[in-house]
Structure formats: structure tokens, C-alpha cells
TrEMBL record:
Residues 5-80 form the Carrier domain. PROSITE patterns: AMP_BINDING, CARRIER, PHOSPHOPANTETHEINE. This is AMP-binding protein. Keywords: Phosphopantetheine, Phosphoprotein. The keyword Phosphoprotein applies. The keyword 4Fe-4S does not apply. SMART domains: PKS_PP. InterPro entries: ACP-like_sf (IPR036736), AMP-bd_C (IPR025110), AMP-bd_C_sf (IPR045851), AMP-binding_CS (IPR020845), AMP-dep_synth/lig_dom (IPR000873), ANL_N_sf (IPR042099), CAT-like_dom_sf (IPR023213), Condensation_dom (IPR001242).
């Protein structure tokens, strides 16, 4: 096709293409392209059509900067189709959102395309075989397809990822010393990289007398900060002659964890409501080097203060540093609310930890006055939301913000906390040191990058675009940020070392990590007692690591479930910790359950690894074994606890390390648990309460008594055990506490003097039992009533004080820190007294969802307009005058029996499946002693109560089997055709044979 050289005709042609791309009837030639909604992707499609259909060669930035159709036509009139080299692509695929954002930036801002490169270098001193080094570099490129995959456009102008041949993917030069300075060589390498045709990676080896410098430039779409450390580690392995296991392809590894979701309207509105960052002063403008860089290294005292202040605030040093960076930006620019970009690792799939590629996702964080003036803990929830929607396509995000009326860039500043692995070079006779390689162009207007090291120090650099940010403004941002950290130092000095030490347990880390820290600090302290033996913290972690090494050999993939069918005791606790240390998750099983129920759970969980009493103890490993990174990854799965569920089918609740750690950390802080405390484990291993008992105790460095059969002792023997072992904390099911209270109230014994805290939960608390407790409990013993669920742990609690209980039932309490309670969708702190509705729980402790049941997860774990997750409990609650909550009932037909939730409809369905039964109604009845029991009323042809209970015992846990099965002549139906449950309850109360009220 010939080139169109008539501007008017060309303008009409371009207008037709623009109208088609925008989905409108016509476009005037003097209309503004940007104001009509032409964005980066549409611009790429436009210039591709002009190229393929009319032989006109334009860049995407021309389409965006021309302003109007007429102006673009004038530029295009002199253009002709250029020759283009064949890509040599072996295959094409869809780029990831992160790759696409970088590529578009290079197309739209070609003058800053060099900012989208990763540059790094090493000096290797000692006897080094250059030929062997070059082959090692080639081996790394062969192993990782990301280093051979670039981006070009397809026939419709849309970007596609293409794989080029190895010889074109890598440019490798070997030169003698004296070939120019480091900055000059780096710039030359950067300009050689071509993201479409290759090379994707350009490497130069400059050889001197006894040393070799390796300098590399890699397209950012193929490489991130983590990749740099992997590249070095693999070079080290190949130089040592080692063989490395194969890695999964970049596309597969990324596809396993990339989200690519669209952010909800509520979150878009929050971002759009912020202001643009405007910099004081005028940038120099004009041609020249646009890259500016200022060192930003906090001193040693500031680094220590950042760590200590973060612990005090209950956040990570990253969140606190972001908080302080926001304050510095506000002070310099005057903006009261603005957006900051924060790159996140994005390596959610464990396989990605060993894969070179670009996994980074960009989180866009709105920073506002309220969060910047308050505690950094207030920024934590905003950061979590930004992380949740970091997988949103930058194109979709920009389009959503523009629809909300905001035309500014997605963000004007960037904050990078560079947590990457480090490569330990150990090539015989060779010393390796990093070279100080700087970028050759800015990637954003202004970016603060911090590199924390293992010794507690932090290095930093503030980079900026000289054409946008005046040098004085950049210098002031750096000064303000360092001043913010100096203020932390002064606050730390005022607080003193005691306050800092007290805040140590607020630092987020996994349960396994906390227990290891106690082993390192106080390894001889006793962690477990039971069965005539004791286990110190050092022994506990050593035994867990031995079993973990054994489990890791059996696991086919990270995160695999480890079933535990063991009685309460040392082996059960060790195996729980071992599963987490091996990078897996534990699933405890109740061996007292019917075989059918255990088989159902095993099938549902797809359980492949089971540890039971027949499993031999692990042998000592031949070499020292260390836990994988997933053992401390707060987003990785820690455990699965099964619950009977509202449908009657067992449901596995997935609890990651982060929510589990937050849940336990709340209890340790509120209950003031210290290493001097002693706990007892009463709950069966399979119930979530066992995790509450075990991990609350061990993460605080206390001692846990795991005596087998403890929960089956007569009450007198149990009280004696508590007294003899000086137990300080009793975490009891409410039904067990009632029995203890009655025992003490009868005068058969006194509560042992060592007990300081009694925690109850799992069943309703009645005021009659509270009165009895107040009569027998010594002064100073704290009684805490709690409300929780397997799906979110313990979320609410109320102290039951010594005042006479009111006529209303005792409260289930207020939310613990980090927990948000909603009643009918509204936050608790916004509701007036007397409000009644369904309770939902949100916050840091909410589980991930139900194992292998996405539909039920979506139904019960819901998100609001801003993406915040909450679990809908189906419990009805009432807001009291003191802003605590009172339990009212269920919105469905569930009941709690001896602390366990059962579904009445499941019991009825199982009964009606038995021969001779035509209709069944199960009802819970509460007696004057406060205990709740099940009674089933059935009709049919001479049903056998004993036979029906025996049949249920084969299918259900014992607590879900009715205490009485009562045959009746008839059960009426309502006019709707549904069972008349109220009449059935009246019949059951009259016929049960108990003194019900």
C-alpha cells in the first residue's frame, strides 16, 4: 500500500480509525485525542494500523503528544514504512501486567526508556577462568526463558511476548582493561538492549591483572531485584562445577500466582480523591542528563530506632519507613493526600523463588493527612488494600481513575524497600565484591529506594527526574526523610530501653519464628511437660527440625498438607511445628471420630502425608538442614482445621501464617502471658482451640502441660493436677468451666492459688454460673468470656468482673486489636445501642477461606466496596449500652453443643434417611444448669430410638448425636409446608424427661 501524503485525506483516515477504537460514530479532526479518551493501548493500536494499512511509521508517544487528529496527520504525512528485522520469535504469549506497564512506558516516554533496565556488576579478584565464566553466563540464560523473552506488537498493534533465539537474547563481550570508565561502559550496555528483537541481556567482562569486572544490563521486563541475586547465585554454582535442578518456565511460574484483577470502584474512588504531587521551584528543563541521584543512608542510631519504633507500633519497618517518607513528601510538596507507588515482589508461587523473571506488581498507596499524622498502624490497613489490588492492570487502573474525574498520573513518587536474597559467593580462591552501578535514566519522577541488610543497617538512594523535579526539592525530600528518622531516634531515647524491650513482641513474624527466637534466647527453659518427661525450647526446635527435614523429602510441592493423627502430647506439638518448618501446613485429625468422617476429611483435603502413632521417629539428618523461606512467609498456609460446618459436610478452614500469628499475638498481649506462665492443653488436637492453647503458650516462651488424657480426669483429680503443677492459665470450654464451677461451689475443693487467669468460650455463658463463680473465685483471678470461630480465631472478649451479673446474658465482648466487628454490614463503633443483626468479622486474623471449596468461600468470606474481607458468621448479636455485643441466636438452624457447632438440618436429614423414619426435627434445649443438649423428635413406622442413635454415631461426632430420640405419632407442618419447629420444641421439652425450662 502506498503512503498517503495528502494531510486532509490522511486526517480523515486517522479520524476514522480513532472513532472505531473509541467506539464513537465520528471524530472531528481538531478534537483532542487525550480528552476523548485515547490511552496508551489505544494509541499503540492506532499507530500499528497506520503502519500496516497505510505504510506510516509513528511512535505511540507521537499519537499522545500530537494533541489533535490534524496535528497527528501533519506528522504522519512525511512518514514512510521502514524496513524491520525479523524477530525470530519461537512463540508468542500475553505479557504480564507488570511487563506491559514497563513496555508501554518505554513506548510512550522513549526518552526515559533506559530507566526500564536493571544494571548491576561484580568485581571478581583472583584466578578466574574467563572461558568458564562466559559459559556459566550462557548456562544461566539457557535455564531461564525470561532472559530470552521480549515484547513486540502483533498485527493488530497489541503487545505480545516473544521468545528470540539464544544467540540474539544475549550479547556477551570480553575486553581488556582500559576500555572506558564504569559509567561509560554501563551506558553503552544499556543502549544495546532491545526488548523486541534482543539482546534482552547485555554483559561485558573487562579483564585486568588478577581481576575481572562483570557488568550487565537487562531489560526490566525480564528481570527484577530478586532475579539479580538468583543470577549471581547460579553463576557461583556453575563456576564451582555444580549441577542445578531444572526450573519452571517464567510464564508458568508467574501464571500460577499473578492476579490481574480489576480493583473495585470503592478503591478506585479512594485513589482518585487524592491530589497530584507538585514540586516547588522550576526544573532546569532542556536537553541533557535527566537522571539525578542522592545518597540517603540513615545513620546507625536511626536504623535501630526505626526497628524499635516499628515494634512499638505493631508494624514492620517497611510500613513505618513508608509512613515517614509520606510525611517528608507532604512537607515539601504541600499535598494533603497523594498516591505513592510501591513495587511488591509478587513471587507468591514458591516455584517463583528460584525463577529469574519480572514478577513485580505495583501497589498504589493513597497517603492522607489522617494516616500521616497518626500512628503508622493506621497506614497498615491501607497498605493491605493496596497490596490486594496490586495485580490490577495499570491500564485498567489509569482508566478507572480517569473515569472518576482525575487526570493525573497513577503516582508521582515511588517507595522501594528492597528485600532481596543475597548470593554467598564461594568460588575457590576468588573474592567477589559488588560494583556501584547506577541507572542511566530515571524510572519515575522521584523514587526513594532503601536496602536493609542483615546487620541492621540501611543503605538508601533518592533518584529523580531532573526535567520534572528541581534538584533543591529532591534534596529537601531527602533531608526531611532523614530528619523523620532522627525524630524516631529521639523518641526512642525518651522511651528508654525498657519500653523498647516490652514492644519486641509486636514485630510481625510467624509462630514458628517466634518459638525459634525463644529457643535462641532461652533454650534451656522448659517448653513442654507431660508423660513423665520435659522438653526444653532448644530440644523442641531441634526435634521439630529433624522431623521437618524428613517431611520435606516426602513433600511434592511447597505448602503441602501434613495430616496429624496423634493424641495430645509432645509428638503432636513437634509435628505441628515440623510441618510449618518444612514449608508445609498441618492438618490435625481427631482419631475419636467415626472412620467414615475421617475418610471424608482425608478425601476432601486430598491428604497424601499422614503422621500417626505408627510413624517411626525421624533419623538425625546427615547434614545441617535449614527451613525454606515459606516457613516464615506470612502469606503462606500454616494450618487447616476442619469444622462440622453449616452444611454438615466437614469443611477445612485455611489459616495462613499471618492471621495465625496476629491471632496469637493478640492473646499474648491481652492476657499478659510471660515465660513464667504454665498452661494445660485440654482441647483435642483436631479442634482450633488446641492451636489457641499451644501457640499462645509457646510463642510467649511459657510452659505447656500436655499430659495425655488430662481432659478425661475426674474433676477432683484435675484440680489436684492444676495445684501440684502450679498452673497459672486455664483456657477452658465453657461447659468444662461450668463443671469446675459446680465442683468448687459444692465445697469439694478450692481453686488452686497459682491460677491467675481463666479463659472460657465455645458455648453460651449463663448468669447463674457467673454468680456461682463469683462466690468461689479468689480475688484477683481474671475471668474472660470469649467469642471466636475456626474461620477467624478468637475475635471478641469480655472481662467478667465481680459485680452482680445483670438479668441480661453476659456479653461476648468487644473486638480485640486489629479486629473489626460489623453488624448488618455496619462497623460496631458507628451503631447505637439496641441494634440487632448478623455479626461479621474482619481484620488481621480472618482465614483465607475453605479448602477446595471456592463457592462457599465466596459466600461466607465476602469483600466490601474497598476490597476488605470479612467473614459472615450467621450469628445474631445485639449492641449493648457499653458498646459490647450480646449473643442473640442464629440466623440459620445451627446450634452450639458443648462448644461445638452442629447443623440441625444435617441431623434431621440423616434420621430421615433411616428405615422407618418419615419426618424428624432436632432441637436444642437449655436447662437450668445452662447446658445445652440435643433432642430429636421423629415420626414413622415404629422407629427404634437406640438403633437411630447408633446409626448417627457411625456418621457424626458424638457431640452432634441427640441425647434423646423421641418417637411421636405426628409432627405438624406449617401452612408453607415447612416443619413446625416450635411445636416440635414444645413436644421435646415435655417428653425429654429432663427438668427443662
Amino acid at each position: 500500500m502506498s503512503v498517503i501524503d495528502d494531510e486532509e485525506r490522511l486526517a480523515r483516515v486517522i479520524a476514522g480509525h480513532v472513532a472505531e477504537l473509541l467506539g464513537v460514530a465520528t471524530v472531528e479532526t481538531d478534537a483532542g485525542l487525550w480528552s476523548m479518551g485515547l490511552d496508551s493501548l489505544a494509541a499503540m493500536r492506532l499507530v500499528r494500523r497506520l503502519y500496516t494499512d497505510h505504510g506510516l511509521a509513528l511512535r505511540a508517544d507521537a499519537a499522545l503528544h500530537a494533541g489533535t487528529v490534524a496535528a497527528l496527520a501533519k506528522l504522519a504525512a512525511q512518514s514512510a514504512r521502514p524496513s524491520r528485522a525479523e524477530t525470530g520469535a519461537a512463540e508468542a504469549s500475553v505479557p504480564t501486567t507488570g511487563q506491559l506497564a514497563l513496555w508501554l512506558d518505554g513506548q510512550v516516554r522513549p526518552e526515559l526508556a533506559l530507566g526500564n533496565l536493571v544494571l548491576f556488576g561484580f568485581r571478581m579478584t583472583g584466578p578466574l577462568d574467563t572461558t568458564r565464566l562466559t559459559e556459566a553466563i550462557r548456562q544461566v540464560v539457557r535455564r531461564h526463558d525470561a532472559l530470552r523473552t521480549g515484547i513486540t506488537t502483533d498485527e493488530d498493534g497489541m503487545p505480545v511476548a516473544v521468545t528470540v533465539p539464544e544467540e540474539r537474547a544475549l550479547r556477551l563481550n570480553v575486553t581488556e582493561a582500559g576500555g572506558g570508565g564504569l559509567a561509560e561502559r554501563t551506558s553503552a550496555l544499556a543502549r544495546a538492549v532491545d526488548v523486541a528483537d534482543g539482546p534482552l541481556i547485555a554483559v561485558e567482562l573487562q579483564c585486568g591483572d588478577g581481576w575481572t569486572d562483570l557488568v550487565a544490563a537487562v531489560a526490566h521486563i525480564a528481570f527484577d531485584g530478586h532475579s539479580e541475586a538468583l543470577f549471581a547465585a547460579e553463576l557461583n554454582a556453575f563456576l564451582r562445577g555444580e549441577r542445578l535442578p531444572p526450573v519452571r518456565s517464567f510464564a508458568h511460574a508467574y501464571g500460577a500466582q499473578a492476579s490481574d484483577r480489576t480493583a473495585p470502584a470503592g478503591w478506585i474512588a479512594e485513589l482518585a480523591a487524592t491530589e497530584p504531587l507538585t514540586w516547588p521551584g522550576e526544573p532546569p528543563g532542556g536537553a541533557g542528563d535527566r537522571y539525578g541521584r542522592l545518597a540517603c543512608d540513615p545513620d546507625e542510631a536511626a536504623c535501630r530506632a526505626l526497628e524499635a519504633a516499628a515494634r512499638t507500633a505493631g508494624v514492620t519497618p517497611f510500613v513505618l519507613a513508608l509512613h515517614r517518607f509520606g510525611r517528608a513528601l507532604r512537607a515539601v510538596t504541600g499535598a494533603r493526600s497523594f498516591r505513592v507507588g510501591v513495587p511488591t515482589a509478587g513471587r507468591d508461587d514458591p516455584a517463583a523463588h528460584a525463577t529469574i523473571g519480572y514478577f513485580v506488581r505495583e501497589a498504589v498507596v493513597p497517603l492522607r493527612d489522617g494516616e500521616l499524622d497518626g500512628s503508622p498502624a493506621g497506614l497498615l490497613e491501607t497498605w493491605r488494600q493496596a497490596m490486594r489490588w496490586s495485580g490490577t492492570s495499570p491500564h485498567d487502573l489509569a482508566r478507572g481513575i480517569r473515569r472518576a474525574g482525575n487526570r493525573d498520573p497513577i503516582f508521582g513518587a515511588q517507595f522501594i524497600w528492597q528485600n532481596t536474597i543475597s548470593a554467598d559467593w564461594d568460588v575457590p580462591g576468588v573474592r567477589v565484591e559488588p560494583l556501584d552501578v547506577h541507572p542511566v535514566a530515571p524510572q519515575t519522577d522521584l523514587s526513594l529506594e532503601l536496602w536493609p541488610s542483615q546487620d541492621g543497617r540501611i543503605r538508601g538512594a533518592l533518584e529523580y527526574d531532573r526535567a520534572v523535579v528541581p534538584a533543591q526539592a529532591a534534596a529537601e525530600v531527602r533531608a526531611r526523610f532523614l530528619a523523620e528518622l532522627t525524630e524516631l531516634t529521639e523518641l526512642a531515647e525518651l522511651a528508654g530501653p525498657a519500653a523498647q524491650a516490652q514492644a519486641d513482641d509486636h514485630r510481625p513474624r510467624s509462630v514458628w519464628r517466634r518459638i525459634r527466637e525463644h529457643a535462641e534466647r532461652n533454650g534451656d527453659h522448659v517448653a513442654l511437660r507431660g508423660g513423665g518427661e520435659q522438653v526444653t525450647y532448644r530440644e523442641l526446635t531441634e526435634q521439630a527440625l529433624r522431623r521437618a527435614e524428613h517431611l520435606s523429602r516426602r513433600m511434592k510441592e511447597p505448602g503441602e498438607l501434613v495430616g496429624i493423627a496423634l493424641p495430645n502430647g509432645r509428638d503432636a506439638v513437634v509435628t505441628m511445628l515440623a510441618a510449618m518448618a518444612a514449608g508445609g501446613a498441618f492438618l490435625p485429625l481427631d482419631t475419636a471420630c467415626p472412620p467414615e468422617r475421617l475418610a471424608e476429611i482425608t478425601r476432601d483435603a486430598r491428604l497424601r502425608i499422614l503422621i500417626d502413632e505408627s510413624t517411626p521417629p525421624p533419623e538425625d539428618p546427615a547434614t545441617r538442614w535449614s527451613a525454606p523461606p515459606t516457613a516464615d512467609d506470612l502469606d503462606a498456609l500454616a494450618c487447616v482445621f476442619y469444622t462440622s460446618g453449616s452444611t454438615g459436610r466437614p469443611r477445612g478452614v485455611m489459616m495462613p501464617h499471618g492471621p495465625l500469628a496476629a491471632y496469637v499475638r493478640n492473646l499474648v498481649a491481652d492476657w499478659h502471658i510471660t515465660p513464667a506462665d504454665r498452661f494445660v492443653q485440654l482441647s483435642a488436637l483436631a479442634w482450633a482451640n488446641s492451636g489457641e492453647e499451644i501457640f499462645t503458650c509457646l510463642t510467649a516462651g511459657a510452659t505447656l502441660y500436655v499430659e495425655p488424657g488430662l481432659r478425661f480426669l475426674p474433676m477432683g483429680a484435675f484440680v489436684s493436677f492444676v495445684a501440684e503443677n502450679d498452673i497459672t492459665v486455664l483456657d477452658l470450654p465453657t461447659v468444662f468451666w461450668r463443671e469446675l464451677t459446680d465442683f468448687l461451689h459444692r465445697g469439694e475443693a478450692a481453686l488452686p492459688s497459682g491460677v491467675r487467669l481463666v479463659v472460657i468460650g465455645g458455648d453460651g455463658l449463663d448468669r447463674h454460673s457467673v454468680r456461682k463463680w463469683q462466690a468461689v473465685a479468689p480475688a484477683g483471678v481474671r475471668l474472660v468470656n470469649t467469642y471466636g470461630s475456626t474461620e477467624f480465631g478468637l475475635a471478641l472478649q469480655a472481662d467478667i468482673d465481680g459485680r452482680p451479673p445483670p438479668e441480661a446474658p453476659p456479653p461476648i465482648g468487644r473486638p480485640l486489636p486489629g479486629i473489626v466487628a460489623y453488624v448488618d454490614g455496619r462497623p460496631l463503633d458507628t451503631l447505637p445501642a439496641g441494634t440487632t443483626g448478623e455479626l461479621a468479622i474482619g481484620g488481621a486474623t480472618v482465614a483465607r477461606g475453605y479448602l477446595n471449596d471456592p463457592e462457599l468461600t465466596t459466600e461466607r468470606f465476602r469483600r466490601d466496596g474497598s476490597g476488605r474481607r470479612r467473614f459472615h458468621t450467621r450469628d445474631l448479636v445485639r449492641v449493648r449500652e457499653d458498646a459490647s455485643l450480646e449473643f442473640v441466636g442464629r440466623i440459620d438452624r445451627q446450634a452450639k453443643i458443648r462448644g461445638n457447632r452442629v447443623d440441625l438440618t444435617e441431623i434431621e436429614a440423616l434420621l430421615e434417611n433411616e428405615p422407618g423414619v418419615t419426618r424428624a426435627v432436632a432441637v436444642p434445649l437449655a436447662g437450668p444448669d445452662g447446658q445445652t443438649r440435643l433432642v430429636a423428635v421423629v415420626t414413622g413406622e415404629d422407629p427404634d430410638p437406640a438403633g437411630l442413635r447408633a446409626a448417627l454415631l457411625r456418621r457424626l461426632p458424638a457431640f452432634a448425636v441427640p441425647d434423646r430420640v423421641l418417637p411421636v405419632a405426628d409432627l405438624p407442618l406449617l401452612s408453607s409446608g415447612k416443619k413446625d419447629v416450635l411445636t416440635a420444641r414444645q413436644i421435646a421439652a415435655e417428653r425429654a424427661g429432663f427438668p427443662w425450662t
